[in-house]
Amino acid sequence: MWKSLPRVLSLVVRGFALTLAVLATIVVIRTATFPSYQTSPPECKLTDPDFIPADQERLSRFTSAIQFRTVSYERGVGTPQELARFTQFIRESFPTIHGSPLVRRDVVGNYSLLYRVDGSDASLKPYMLASHLDVVPITQEANWEAPPFSGQLKDGYIYGRGTIDAKHSLMGCLEAVEFILSRGHRPKRTLYLAFGHDEETSGHFGAKVIGEMLAQRGEKIEFILDEGTPVGEGLVPGVSKQVALVSVAEKGFLQLHLTVNEEGGHASMPRSESAIGILSKAISKLEDSPHPNMFKMFGTGPETRMLEYVATEMTLPYRMLTSNLWLFSPLVGWVYSKKPQTNAFARTTTALTRFNAGVKDNVISPEATAVIDHRIHPSSSVEEVIEFDRKVINDPRVKFNVINNMEPSPTSPYGKDSPTYMLLQKTIQQIYPDALVTPTFMVANTDTRHYWSLSSAIYRFNPYVMTPSDLPRFHGLNERISVQNYERVMNFYYHLIVNMDEPLEIKRHGHEDEL
Ligand SMILES: CCCCCCCC/C=C\CCCCCCCC(=O)NCC(=O)O
Ligand SMILES: [Zn+2]
Ligand SMILES: [Zn+2]
Predict the structure, then answer these.
(1) Is the distance from the beta carbon of residue 227 to the nearest atom of ligand 1 less than 6 Å?
(2) Tens of pLDDT along 268-303?
(3) Which residues form the Peptidase M20 dimerisation domain (predicted)?
(4) ipTM attached to this prediction
(5) Is 417 tagged catalytic?
(6) Distance from Cα 459 to the centre of ligand 2, integer Å
(7) In this model, does residue 187 exceed pLDDT 70?
(8) Which of 134, 175, 178, 389 is catalytic?
(9) What is the CATH superfamily name and number for domain 56-249+410-514?
(10) Which of 8, 178, 228, 411 is paired with 49 by a 20 to 30 Å CA distance?
């Protein structure tokens, strides 16, 4: 037996080497032949009169919009007077829209706005552009570089709450429609503008009512475009070009209220465990046990497609990994889990957003509560997430109470077979000729959850450029938009509306066939 050992070892080594050689060959071939999903940009020069300049008048309107403190605090707790003033301002600022016989304006749920711009061809299904009037509250006001409701222009940026979330798109859509109508153009296809007033607190009294109203009218919408993912610069690992991230789906969410009730009492005679201690351990377990990484499971969902769409444009190491996800998806999953903004694409996330307990320094609190905000990956579900948390915490003293939840959204069509996606891609390339365009999903939530029954083609996209350092400005300090980006926003909506005059059909020519 010992005599044959060298022979066996040699066979094993050779087998191993052969397997490696085969794998390496497949990896190299796939890397070299991976298809390109990008199309060349359409020829279009943004020159006057086909261009909306960010002139003094438009910038001043945008600044004024930022100055309205339309804050949403909690569900049903907002700033009604400010919303009323803001909607009045909108009415006065866009005289052509508000005086046009083509436009019907409905005020929904007291403050939300729904405009219908009647197209000339009633046989075409309408489409909808959506945004919202409200903003989140300010934190750390003293640390802002410009007052948060000033709309101050500083070094080429307009500062203020709502500049990127999402008064840019609200005002950008209105500027585009005003521009088109004031030039005497009547769009072919009917267009809805839907602006909810409580998106930041779930859209329950705004978008939800708009959705119900349109459903009641039996309206079917060709496609819906709402706020969403941006044109990323340095956001997608391994890609140096700008990447326009078009969200074709949206994560679900689950807000869980966790409670522990234990005996309280005098701080001089504590028991071995307290409500605060028990809950802290539970929370700590949750933070230490992230939900499964979907890349590692070699998914076929939008997170994987997003990478495949830009694979050929990546630096070589990333290109090799992405062209061979059948082999490297665990490695890609590991890379994505390293940063919060990429980790959000890899899995269901767990955020501890509230923790309350105690009333006095020398009183043992009988109760401790916490809120966990999960954003649920498109390949998972509310039930799976609750089940996972229960198993991880594994303590019956921690009571679960679901505050609010939504399953991940359906996935809208994308790629060459979807005329609306291709139309969005074309419009993006008109504004960003050098950008790549890729489907992805929205890691946060939008008003579109209330529109699922109206359309099967729902997209979430913000037509401005964002770098990694801009991400904390969402709901954070020093929210701002550059004048250049605001100009792009207005022109993106303008071009989209103009493009919608063309028939929606699948155009195939040249290398697009391989998409
Ligand atoms: C691998 C690709 C990496 C991409 C990097 C991240 C791109 C994410 C960019 C922006 C996120 C957009 C967040 C905007 C949220 C707006 C909606 C909102 O606030 N809704 C309320 C809520 O969700 O609570
Ligand atoms: Zn928003
Ligand atoms: Zn927001």
Answers:
(1) yes
(2) 999 999 999 999 999 999 999 999 998 876 666 777
(3) 248-392
(4) 0.97
(5) no
(6) 14
(7) yes
(8) 134
(9) Zn peptidases (3.40.630.10)
(10) 228
Task: Compute the distance between CA of residue 248 and CA of residue 230 in angstroms, rounded to an integer.
Answer: 13
Pick the CATH number of 252-406 from 3.30.70.360, 1.20.1250.20, 3.10.320.10, 3.40.50.2300: 3.30.70.360
Q: How much is the pLDDT for 36?
A: 87
Residue 349 Cβ inside 6 Å of ligand 1? The answer reads no
Closest CA to 344 of 379, 293, 298: 293
Between CA 362 and CA 268 the distance in angstroms is 8
Give me the mean pLDDT over the 202-225 stretch: 97
* Domain assignments of the chain as residue spans, ordered by start: 56-249+410-514, 252-406
pLDDT, one tens digit per residue, over 421-466 is 999 999 999 999 999 999 999 999 999 999 999 999 999 999 999 9
- Residue 183 token pair: 């030039």
Q: Distance between CA atoms of 132 and 30, rounded to whole angstroms?
A: 44
Inter-residue contact 165 to 474 (CB < 8 Å) = yes
Catalytic-residue membership of 199: yes
- Tell me what pLDDT residue 47 has: 59
| Cα 124 to ligand 2 centroid, rounded to whole Å | 29
442 CA to centre of ligand 1 in angstroms: 6
Cα–Cα distances (Å) from 4 to 7, 9, 10, 14, in that order, read 5, 9, 10, 15
